[in-house]
Amino acid sequence: MKAAVFHGPRDVRFEDIDKPQLEPGEVLVRIGACGICGSDLHTYRHGMFLQLGDPLESGRVLGHEFSGEVVEINGDVPGVSVGDRVTTVGMGGNAEFIRISADRAGALVPLDDSISYVEAATTEPLATSLHAANLGDAQDEETHVIIGAGIIGLGILQCIKARSNAKAIVVDLSDKRLAKAEELGADEIINARETNLVEALSGDVLDSENLLSQTSGGIDVVYDCAGMGKNFQGPSVLEQALAIVRQNGKVVVVAVFEQDVTVDFNVVIRKGVQILGSWAWEMDEFLESARLIASGEIDRKPLVSHTFALEDASKAYETQLVAEEAIKVVFTP
Ligand SMILES: [Zn+2]
Predict the structure, then answer these.
(1) 36 CA distance to ligand 1 centroid (A)?
(2) Phi/psi-derived region of residue 61, left when phi > 0, alpha when psi is between -120 and 50, beta in every other case
């Protein structure tokens, strides 16, 4: 079968590999669409999260954001039939087929006919956004700031807007992504390349030496969806988040860090900030995300910026790497 195989940083190749063989209780899904996740991208760039792929003799098949059609079942799996359109979780979706292990077969989520495979492949990242949004728990009168307008940040925006009247401010370095945030209902957008975020949102003029010595800031909840890239210099998004958050506010950290950040914990203590790490999601959040897409409460179509065939695997990963251009790159094998 066709597959995109990861061999090392910046090295993903289109290859012909063996089609998976099913053990009893397992299900074979023909991939309809599979997105490139931020975590896949960290692997692609630096070899992070190498454990998150199906090992082959040489290389790994990445990809866990997929949807497709059930084409084979070994034995009897309750609630699943050949021909079902589904989305679920698993590793190795950058391929023509994926084997769903017996312990995961119960988590195959049926898809409404009105939802395309491409949209359905964004269920998993929406669940990641929903988990972060649940931690942020937006209330109508609050102001929430989302830093980083990639698929996760934009998904958090969609969750906040679907479930509350909270004001949402989105911050990014890319005008293209910010325009998307506006299209999806952001009340305000800020390009941090042009505007000093801390000055704009705390009202204080800060010198860079003293970024965090202040204790003001009026933002109820800040989401760090940017993290710290390997070569980034200057005050981290996390430090900026701590500067703009209000007394007793929350900072939800959903990004991945490629380098360590230094945080003045006296600021955390003096402001009584809750720092909440947000990793992945619970199964009920995955199901809720599928429901939000099916009901039309959240429209994921505007977030898919590119689709590629597996044959163009390398180009697809390079495209997702260019944040300015891509929001979500999806393989349609
Ligand atoms: Zn993902």
Answers:
(1) 7
(2) beta
CATH of the domain at 95: 3.90.180.10
Helix (H, G, I), strand (E, B) or coil at 233: coil
Query: What's the gap in Å between 280 CA and the centre of ligand 1?
Result: 8
- Per the CB < 8 A criterion, the answer to whether 54 and 64 are in contact is no
8 A C-beta contact, residue 305 and residue 283: no
Q: What is the pLDDT of residue 54?
A: 66
pLDDT at residue 51 in the model: 67
Does residue 282 belong to any structural domain of this protein?
Answer: no
CATH number at residue 265: 3.40.50.720
Pair (96, 187) in one structural domain = no
Instruction: Give the distance (Å) from ligand 1 centre to CA of residue 130.
Output: 13
CA of 215 to the centre of ligand 1 (A): 35
Residues 112 and 231 in one domain: no
What integer best gives the mean pLDDT of the chain? 91
Query: How far is Cα 175 from Cα 172, in angstroms, rounded to an integer?
Result: 8
Q: Report the separation in Å between the CA atom of 249 and the middle of ligand 1, taken as the mean of its atom positions.
A: 27
Structure tokens belonging to residue 303: 């977030």
Show Cβ contacts of residue 331 under 8 Å, excluding neighbours closer than 6 positions: 4, 31, 33, 34, 35, 36, 63, 93, 94, 307, 308, 309, 310, 313, 316
Would you say residue 7 has pLDDT above 60? yes
Taking the centre of ligand 1 as the mean of its atom positions, its distance from the CA of residue 87, in whole angstroms, is 13
Is the domain of 138 the same as that of 265? yes
Per the structure, the count of domains in the chain is: 2
**What pLDDT band is residue 248 in, cutting at 50, 70 and 90?**
very high
Give the distance (Å) from ligand 1 centre to CA of residue 157.
17
Q: What is the 214 CA–ligand 1 centroid distance (Å)?
A: 36
Asked whether residue 295 is domain-assigned, the answer is no
Same domain, 91 and 186: no
For residue 122, how far is its CA from the centre of ligand 1 (angstroms)?
A: 9
Determine the distance separating the centroid of ligand 1 and the alpha carbon of 44, expressed in angstroms: 14
